[in-house]
Amino acid sequence: MQNIEQTISCRDVPISALCDVKLWNHFSPLTALYMPFGFLLLLFRLLLIGAYGVIFPLFPVSRRKRIYRIFIRMLGIRVRCNMTSQEVGQHTAGCVVASTHVSIFDHIPGLAMPHATLMIDKSDSPLGKFVGYILFKGSDSNYWLVRNQRQLVQCFRQWNKSPEQHALYITPEATINNGKALFRFRPEFMIRGQPVVPLALKVKLPFGLSPSPMMSPGYVRFLTILMMPYIHFEVTYLDKLHYSKEQAPQEFADTVQQAIADYLEIPATRWTKDDKYSYREQLKQS
Predict the structure, then answer these.
(1) For 96, phi and psi rounded to 5 degrees?
(2) Which of 122, 173, 214, 254 is the least buried, fewest Cβ under 10 Å from its Cβ?
């Protein structure tokens, strides 16, 4: 392991500090005893998601956000926020919300918030597309389908006409960290004229389950997390930051990253998504 890290070159912290290799940090006898109940809970929650997908069109649009919050509580997902829903709406309207990325479930608490708009490029699987459709439509949230630069420019141009209607949630790390440090933030979506709200996000799972197993496919992470008795998110919105054209874009992105790192009391590293996947490939070959 040490040789692998040295081949990439060590910076402020080793790349392994941001990468969980195993699905379980530890697997105890209690975990093994729980697993049969977890499988039953998984089946129930999958049925619940499917049922919600059938019935949510019956709900008035004005009430879908509130009903969505009840729905995710039924899935075992609890979201603790430092602001009320109304305060979040006032604080984030017309802003880019730059969030840490700790789990494939990170979009679920975001969709519970007012004005929530997410950017979508592609989905990894039919299951992801199905669940994503239910979550977006069932929460009365918006998404931008962006596959190229032209579509991106069109979305921002449309947003500028009525900025208060959207709060654009992004994950500037462009990959999932493990809660122990932050990958370097990319500046592309934070320098387009809108204020930036840093969002410090934490997730707590039981039984030593890692929310970011580096070697596990997305559907394995999704199903395993759904087996857990609870999924707790702590969502903290920080003060707005404003980009100045006198700043270099990366300098501003580093400022946003540091604000979140300071709150979470973890390192803000200069490792990137590319470094992570280079490290993963070397692990596979070792």
Answers:
(1) -90, 125
(2) 122
CA atoms within 13 A on the CB side of 167: 24
Q: What is the DSSP string of 138-187?
A: HTT-EEEE-SSHHHHHHHHHHHHHSGGG-EEEE-TTSS---SSSBPPPP-
Question: Over 70: is that where the pLDDT of 6 sits?
Answer: no
Q: How far apart are the first and last CA of the chain?
A: 9
Instruction: State yes or no: pLDDT of 169 exceeds 50.
Output: yes
Provide the pLDDT for residue 257: 98
Token pair for 77: 């997902």
| Alpha helices, DSSP H, located in the chain | 2-8, 29-55, 64-74, 85-92, 107-111, 126-138, 149-161, 218-226, 249-264, 273-285
Distance, CA of 155 to chain centre:
21
- Residue 235: its H or E element: strand 231-237
Confidence of residue 123 (pLDDT cuts 50, 70, 90): low
Q: What is the pLDDT of residues 227-247, one digit of tens each?
A: 999 999 999 999 999 999 899
Phi-psi region at 146: left, alpha or beta (left = phi > 0; alpha = psi -120 to 50)? beta
Q: How far apart are CA 188 and CA 190, in angstroms?
A: 6
CA distance 18 to 83: 29
Task: List the structure tokens of 34.
Answer: 């729980």
Q: Cα(226)–Cα(105) distance, rounded to whole angstroms?
A: 10
Q: What is the pTM of this model?
A: 0.89
What is the token pair recorded at 265? 């009391």
